[in-house]
Amino acid sequence: MMDEYERMLRDGLRQAVDRRPPLGTIDPAELMAPRSTDDEPIGLATPETPKAPLARRHPGVRWAIGVAAAAAAAALLLLVPGLLTPKPIPATPVATSPPAPEPVEPTPTIEPTTEPEPEPEPGVDLADLTVSTAGWKTFSSPEYPITFMYPPDWELSYSKRTAALAKAEQLTPAGIVDGCGVDGCDVHLRPPGQGDEGTHVVLMRTGFYGDGFSGPIPGAWLLATLPNLQVWTSADPTVEPVAATVMMRSAAGFRVGGPPKDLGAPYDYMLSTAELAPAIAVGEANPLAEHPEASFSFEANGGVPEDQVNTVVTILTSVRENPDFNPTQPARDKSGRPKFWMRSMDAAPTSDIDSVDSSGWETLEVPDGNISLRVPPKWKVSTLADDDDGTRSGITHIVAPSGYVIAVLTNGEAEFGCQSVTEWRIPERLGYLPGLTAADADGVERTVDLWWQDATWTPAQVWLSVTRPTEGSLLCSQSVIDYGGLYPVYVGSADNSKNPTQAELVQAAAILTSLERLS
Amino acid sequence: MSLGVEADRLKGATAVMTADDTSFVEFVRSRADRFLDLAWLVTRDAEDARDAVQDALAGLYARWALLPTGDEFEAYVYRTVVNSCLGVIRRRPRSLPVAQPEGLPMAPVGADPAQAVAASDEVWRLCGALSPDQRTAVVLRFYQDLSFAEIAAALGCRESTARSHVHRAVLALRAQVEGQR
């Protein structure tokens, strides 16, 4: 079982740390010594040379870099004949397109100062932008939705997957194809002579049932627009296509004000959109509604050395839609379900909940969350201990005889999460808990609803959440709920446990519906 | 000098330390060991681990007053430490093989010492075979107990990339173990 191996990883890493050689301690004085000021003798080693004050951000820096970058990109695009068919790709002048990072927090970093501006960062030196694509290779595989060009001496490789791994993943009838399986695939591109430690340009495609790409993208700067590459960012039919862009971001920066120089070179470069869509697909029509596997990312990862910036940007701007995209389909069982999925439940639990005999169930109180739950006698309750450093775990598991887990978590944030109702795998709302309401993250009092979702590669799940009315195509719910305790609480299935029996699924739903406030 | 002693010495100087300095010292005191563990697991080399953490913390100190707060602070800190670790790995001579951990297969751990050592070795070998990014994701997930969103922020990748790294590592471990049965 997967959780057995996860446990092995967890234990193995802890044992490795237990046995690591002594690394000594980090002396804060050593770290602070280089920083000296005229008026802050902090009792540490006195620096012999005057130190620079803490870097202050000049608000014009990012603009300067953005303008220079756009100019550089424009020069690049005009200088690379291989990219100009059928016509040149104009770079978007950044002077008329604001840079895309998140708004900078009002910290001292954005205060104008009289300090000189930092030198422009890598990737913006016009003199260097003379990359020719003559003799370059073109990558094209039916497993990937785009093609791109790359220098002949760069190494292109797929994910390293052994035959055993292929078998374990139960991939496609054809096994591993060009690094692809059901859960996605990737192509790695490296400069000559470099292994894993070298520059990575990674094309990563979403899997057939994948979650798509999510999560925040750190602040980035618009470098160039590729107007002839139509990009889709959502399966939502109301979302219009946009142009692809090449974006540039600090490998160290993370939505922090301050000059890019201070946030640390090198930079990463990515194919995206001006709005920094976390996922993109290309094509005349939107392929995402029926084919989540058309979604991909294409980006340098881990920082591009200065001498490789121009080549990387050229690679990114060489992207075209792959008209031959036709990925190998996953193996399925006789019922048409993917082979590696867990068994489907016979039915949603809702109609059976009332028939559950709860006599003999014990009460579990979770004072931190100000709630109680009723637990069947054969289910076991365990609470994870706090960390050694005193960090509270906030995790209680209610474990069914089969190993199915209902988690009670008081370590999460009470906030809404949204998904498009056109996305694949929309869960089903079964009803609400009578007489129970809770204030959502916006302060609105709402009913507490019971949701469920059948098994896929994760077990069948039930959970409680409060839900906003659907707005357009967005469904927003909040599963960490404030019941008036010290912490808000998530009550629902853990996504990494065993699949329940049908009876356990019904019991799990009944456990959730037994929730009451303690006070 | 132990960190505790140093902290005491610094505490005596708080009258002339800035609030930022004080909070930085406290931060280092409370978090450095954990970062060393993380760096050790990612770089797999004692000196590299120490260098990486030193560099990362020095960099953080230089920007201390400018850093964001809350979750973004945590994300930034992890990002800095991880970048420092990966930077150390990148700067290594390319021919450098993945070294056996110093002292790893020595003292037995757990109720069944032989089994514990074998499992631990298995994990260590597996992690050595992963790419630095994958290894970092695994360490952040299973040692630092970060969420996938937090791992993605630390690695500067998308959440699905982080999931993919971890998922494949677990599958690889399973394939490795089952292949030996």
Summarize the structure in words.
The complex is a heterodimer of chains A (519) and B (181). With 519 residues, chain A is of the alpha+beta class. Chain A has helices at residues 2-18, 28-32, 59-79, 163-169, 260-263, 309-317, 502-513; strands at 137-139, 146-150, 155-158, 180-181, 184-190, 200-205, 221-232, 242-250, 267-272, 281-282, 296-301, 320-321, 362-366, 371-375, 380-383, 395-399, 405-409, 417-420, 428-439, 445-453, 461-467, 474-478, 480-481, 489-493, 516-517. The longest helix of chain A is centred in the N-terminal third of the chain and has 21 residues, at 59-79. Chain A is globular. With 181 residues, chain B is mainly alpha-helical. Chain B has 2 domains: 1-93, RNA polymerase sigma factor, region 2, helix turn helix motif (Rna Polymerase Sigma Factor, Chain: A), CATH 1.10.1740; 112-181, Orthogonal Bundle (Arc Repressor Mutant, subunit A). Chain B has helices at residues 3-12, 19-43, 46-62, 70-91, 113-129, 132-142, 148-155, 159-180. In chain B, α5 (113-129) packs across α8 and α6 (132-142) crosses α8. Chain B contains 8 helices and no strands. Chain B is globular, with a radius of gyration of 18 Å. At the A-B interface, α1, α2 and α4 of A face α1, α2, α3, α4 and α5 of B.
Descriptive labels:
heterodimer; A: about 525 residues; alpha+beta; nine-stranded antiparallel beta sheet; five-stranded antiparallel beta sheet; 7 helices; globular; B: about 180 residues; mainly alpha; Rna Polymerase Sigma Factor, Chain: A; Arc Repressor Mutant, subunit A; 2 domains; about 0% strand
